[in-house]
Amino acid sequence: MENKTSKYLKYAIGEIVLVVIGILIALQINNWSDQRKYDERMQSFLKNIQKDLKIDIENSQENLKLIREYINLHKTFLTTTDYSAFPTDSLEKLLDTRYFRFETNHTTFEKITNGGITQISNDEPLSDKIYNYYNTLLQRTELMNSWDLNSSRSKAEFIFSDETNFEIDIRNYGYENPQEIPMVLDSQTNRKRMLDILTRIYVRNELKLDLYRKSRIMEYFENRKDTIQDLISEIDKVLENY
Questions:
Q1: How far apart are CA 234 and CA 36, in angstroms?
Q2: Which long-range contacts (CB under 8 A, 24 or more apart) does 145-149 make?
């Protein structure tokens, strides 16, 4: 009886050990599966955010090119007092009241935050940088856009409210004139009016302020581009470790 009891106990203990081992293996497999799903989700977040960041850079390139040309023209104008050599289309561009709006593509980030997810990456410093980019830098971007929009409207009030106004030629803005819109003023009169406006002190002061504003805006968005490129590089490094 003692021998049978001993064999039974050994058998029972063996069965229990096998069951425990089986449970541990199942748990481990489940943990591996959960970790794999979590890693795949993190990879998907980072890859999509990286795409959005690249779109931000692409969208800013044309604006940066245009604003650089705009600044160079204004610098040339403000460093001389003889404007007779300036072509008429350049004179008109100096009186341009356009503003530059820079967009931020935050589609993926909104999906993540709307889903209640607070951790975009296992790399905590990178996750913090991404949140900082979309929260802090996004607000600054909108402030810069609003600053340029409101100031450009103010510039337009200075220039286009004068009785001796000039007539714009839409072709000088890079657009075709398919309807062949006629000009009321002849070219010489129009040019004379432009020169008259541009030599007024309050207009020169407005152009100086506009130059300062556009220079600050260009500097900000060039720095933002560097920040984006750094983020893209850091995301690449983290993705390599998955």
A1: 21
A2: 145/99, 145/101, 145/102, 147/213, 147/217, 148/99, 148/100, 148/101, 148/213, 148/214, 148/217, 149/99, 149/101
Contacting residues for 103 by C-beta, under 8 A, at least 6 apart: 56, 59
The pTM (predicted TM-score) of the whole model is 0.73
Instruction: Specify the amino acid at residue 53.
Output: L
Q: Report CA-CA distances (Å) from 97 to 65, 155, 206.
A: 17, 6, 11
**DSSP letter assigned to residue 39:** H
Residue numbers of the domain that contains 77: 2-240
Q: How many CA atoms lie within 13 A of 66 on its CB side?
A: 14
d(CA 39, CA 118): 15
Q: What is the CA radius of gyration of the chain?
A: 32
Tell me how far apart the alpha carbons of residues 72 and 67 are, in angstroms, rounded to a whole number.
Answer: 9
Residues 166 and 190: beta-carbon distance below 8 Å:
yes
Span 145-202, pLDDT tens digits: 999 998 888 888 777 776 667 887 776 665 555 567 778 888 899 899 888 888 888 8
Q: How many domains is the chain partitioned into structurally? A: 1
Q: Give every CB contact of residue 67 below 8 A, 6+ residues apart in sequence.
A: 100, 214, 217, 218
Give me the pLDDT at residue 51, please: 92
Q: Which three-class secondary structure state does DSSP give residue 223?
A: helix
Q: Compute the distance between CA of residue 52 and CA of residue 59 in angstroms, rounded to an integer.
A: 10
CA distances from 159 to 198, 201, 202 (A): 9, 12, 10
